[in-house]
Amino acid sequence: MSLSFARKYLACLGVSTCLIGAVHAQGSGAIQSLTLPQALALAKERNPSLAVSAFEIQAGEARRVQANLRPNPELSLELEDFAGSGGFNNTASLQTTLSLSQAVELGGKRKRRIDVAVLGGEIAAIEQQARELDVLADVTRRFVEVVSMQEQLALARSAAVLAEKTVVVLAERVQAARSPQAELTRAQIAQTRARIAVREMESSLLSASYELAALWGGTEPGFQTAQADLYALPPAISLLELQQSIERTPQIQRCATDARLREAQWQLERAHAKPNFNLNLGVRRFEATSDTALVAGVSMPLPLGNRNRGAIEESRIRREQSTAEERAARIRIQATASALHQCIASGRVRVEILRNEAIPLARAALEQTQYGYERGRFSYLELAAAQQELLAMQSAAIDAAAEYHKLTAEIERLIGAAVVR
Question: Domain with 139 in it: what CATH number?
Answer without folding.
Answer: 1.20.1600.10
